[in-house]
Amino acid sequence: MTQSSMHELPPFRVPAGTRMIARLVGLGLLLACIAGLVEWFIIRVEVNAGEVLVLVNKTGATVPDELADAFGDQVVLYPELADAIAAKTGVTADRVREGYKGVQLEVLPEGRYFPNPYFYKSMKFPATLIGQGEIGVLVRKFGKPLPFPKTVATAPDERGPVAEILLPGRRNINLLAYEVQRFPAIQIPEGHAGVVTLLSGDDPRERNTYTVAVGEKGVQHETLPPGLEYYNPYLRHIEVVDVRSHRYDMLDDDAIHFPSNDSFTITIEGTIEWAIRPDRVAEITVAYGDAGDILEKIIIPYVRGIARIQGSKLAASEFISGKTRTAFQDRFLTELKRECWEQGVEIRAALVRDILPPNEIASLISQREQADQEIERSTNQMSEAQSEARLVEQREMQAQNSAIGDARRTVVTLTKQAEQSKGVAVTQARRELEVNKLDLDAAKKQAEAIRARGQADANVLLADYRARAEPLARSVKAFGDGVSYARQFYFQRVAPAIRTILTNTDGPFAETFKALQTVPTEPASTTGERP
Fold first, then answer.
1. CA neighbor of 218 nearest in space, from 232, 204, 208
2. Phi and psi (nearest 5°) for 135?
3. Taking 50 as the threshold, does the pLDDT of residue 523 lie above it?
4. pTM above 0.70, yes or no
5. With 70 as the cut, is the pLDDT of residue 527 above it?
6. Residues 103 and 177: beta-carbon distance below 8 Å
7. What is the pLDDT of residue 456?
8. Contact present, 361 and 264 (Cβ < 8 Å)
9. How far is CA 71 from the centre of its chain?
10. Residue 279 has what pLDDT?
11. What is the pLDDT of residues 324-357, one digit of tens each?
12. Which of 28, 115, 215, 485 is placed for a possible disulfide with 120 were both Cys, Cβ 3.0 to 4.6 Å?
C-alpha cells in the first residue's frame, strides 16, 4: 500500500460509552489514590512502644433522659453504664460503646490504627510504669460517688481510689478514666513490726477496744513482720514500731528519789533495759504511743511508785547494810517486772548501780558498819586461832601416831633381834622404849601448851571486855542506881576544888550541899542552937 492510499483511509474513533467508562475508571483510581494518601498521611495513627491510644466517640447518642439522674455526669463508657443503656434501649452493650458519645474505656496498645477523625478523637498517652520500691493506686474518675464512710472503691461502678494496687511493672491504663497515684512501699526493718490500721471495712462488733478483729475497720491485732510491704494507703495505714530493747539510765537528773521510813531522802541510780511485748505491739502502740511515751507513761511512773512503796518500809540506815539493801533491790526489780509485764512491757534487765543515803547519816552509819565489820573480823580471827589450834593438835596427834607406829615397828624389830641376842638386845630395846615414851610425853605437853595458849588469848580478849564493863556495873550497883552514882562522881570532882563558899542558905547552889547535910544523932540543945 502506497502512501497516498494510506491518507485515504477514514479516521479511527473511540465509542463515546468507552470513553465515559475510561474516565470513570481513571477518576475512581484517582479517588482511591487520594483516599489512600489521606488515610496514610492524615488518618493513620502510629502508637509507638511505651504508648497507648484512647478513642473518644465524637458523634452518637447521649445518655437517655431516664438515666440522666444516675449517669448524667458520666463521660466514660464503662461496662455498667453500657449495660444500663443497653437494658433501657434494647441494643447490645457493644453497640452502646460504639454508638454513644464518650470516652471508650479500653485502650489500644502500640501499633498502627486508622480511626475516622470525623467519628473519633485519638489521644495518645504514655504507658504507666510503676518503679521498683513503689506501688500505684488507681483513682477511678467515673462511677457513683463513694458512700460514707468508705475510703476505697470496692465495687466496679464506684468512683474513687481502687482497693487493688499496682505492683512494679508496666500497665496500659486509660488516663482519661483513671488517675494513677504513686506511693513508696514501706520497708519494715529487722527488729521492728508494722502496726496496721484498716481504714475501710466492717464496723467493729466489739466497741471501745484498742484493736479489732480481722477485716474490721480499726487497728488490727496482728502485726507485719520485717520486710518490704506493698499496701494501699487509702485502705491501710502502717506504722513501723521498734520492738528492740531500749535502755533507760537513771542518772543525775533522771535518778529516782524517795523518802525512807524515817523521812530521809534516798537516791537510786541504775539502768533498765526494756522492750514492747511482741504479742501486744499493736495494743501498746495505740494505748500509749511510741517508745518515748511508753517510757514516760509506764516505766518511769512504775519505777518511782514501786521505789517509794518499798523504800518507805525501810529506815535510811538499812539502805547501807548489805543484806537489807540486796533484799530491797530484789523486791524492787521483781515488782517492776511484774507490773510492766501486765502493761505489755517486758523488763529484760535491770541494774541498780547505787543506792545513796543522805550525807548527814551516811558517815555515821558507815562508822557503825565498820565497827560491826571489825567485831566480825575479830570473831573470825578467834575462829581462825581455834582452827589453827585444832590443826596443830591434829598434826601432833599424827606425829604421835607416827611415833607410836615407829615404836611398834622398832619393838618388833627389837623382839626379833632379842630372839637372836636376848641379853644386850632386850636392854637396848628397853632403853629406846623409855626414850620414846619421854618424847611422847613431851609432844603431848607441847600440844597442850599450844592449845592452852590459844585458849588463854581468847580468854584475855573476853576478860578485857568484861574488865571494862564490870567496874562500872559494880559502882552503879553499890550506889543503888545510876543517878546516885553520877551524883557521887560529880561531888568527888567538885569538892576538892571548893575552898570558900559565899552564899546564903537558899538558892540553887545551896541545894547542892543540902543533900550532904547529915541528920544529928543527939537531941538539940535547950537554947535551940545546932551543935
1. 204
2. -130, 160
3. no
4. no
5. no
6. yes
7. 78
8. yes
9. 56
10. 92
11. 777 888 888 899 999 999 999 999 988 877 777 7
12. 115
| CB within 8 Å of 448: residues ≥ 6 apart | none
Instruction: Write out the three cell numbers for 504.
Output: 546564903
Cα(69)–Cα(73) distance, rounded to whole angstroms?
8
What pLDDT does 187 receive?
Answer: 94
Return the axis-axis angle of helices 422-479 and 482-494, rounded to nearest 10°: 80
Q: What is the mean pLDDT of residues 138-159?
A: 89
Closest CA to 256 of 377, 372, 356: 356
The conformation of residue 505, written as its DSSP 8-state character, comes to: S
Q: Bigger pLDDT: 276 or 41? A: 276
Q: Which residues pair with 153 in a beta bridge?
A: 162
The answer to whether the CB of 491 falls within 8 A of the CB of 513 is: no
Q: How far is CA 10 from CA 7, 13, 16, 237, in A?
A: 8, 9, 18, 101
Which of 390, 301, 399 is CA-nearest to residue 343?
A: 301
Strands 102-104 and 76-77: parallel
CA distances from 323 to 304, 362, 371, 376, 388 (A): 22, 17, 17, 15, 30
Q: Per the structure block, which three cell numbers stand in for 324?
A: 537489807
Q: Is the dihedral of CA 297, 303, 307, 310 positive or negative?
A: positive
Contacts of 118 (CB under 8 A, 6+ apart): 58, 59
Q: How many helices (H) and strands (E) does the chain have?
A: 13, 20
Cell numbers given for 306: 514501786
What is the DSSP secondary structure assignment for residue 42, as one 8-state letter? I
Q: 97: which 3 cell numbers?
A: 460503646
CA dihedral sign, ordered 260, 266, 269, 274: positive
In sequence order, the 6+-apart residues with CB closer than 8 A to the CB of 165 are 135, 136, 137, 230, 231, 232
Burial of 214 (C-beta count, 10 Å sphere; 0-12/13-18/19+) = exposed
What is the rounded CA–CA span in Å between residue 24 and residue 151?
66
Question: Which percentage of the chain shows pLDDT scores above 90?
Answer: 30
* Dist. CA 272–CA 302, nearest whole Å: 12
User: Which grid cell sits at 522?
Assistant: 543527939
Backbone region of residue 526 per phi and psi (left: phi > 0; alpha: psi in -120 to 50; beta: other values): alpha
Q: Which residues contact 275 (CB under 8 A, 6 or more apart)?
A: 243, 244, 245, 246, 345, 346, 348
69, 62 in Cβ contact below 8 A?
A: no
Which residue type is seen at 359?
Answer: N
Peptide bond connecting 225 to the previous residue in cis, omega within 30 degrees of 0? no
pLDDT digits (tens, 9 = 90+) for 437-484: 877 877 787 878 788 787 877 777 777 777 777 777 777 777 777 777
Q: How far apart are CA 124 and CA 74, in angstroms?
A: 21
Cell of 387: 582452827
- State the average pLDDT for the chain: 81
Q: What pLDDT was estimated at residue 514?
A: 62
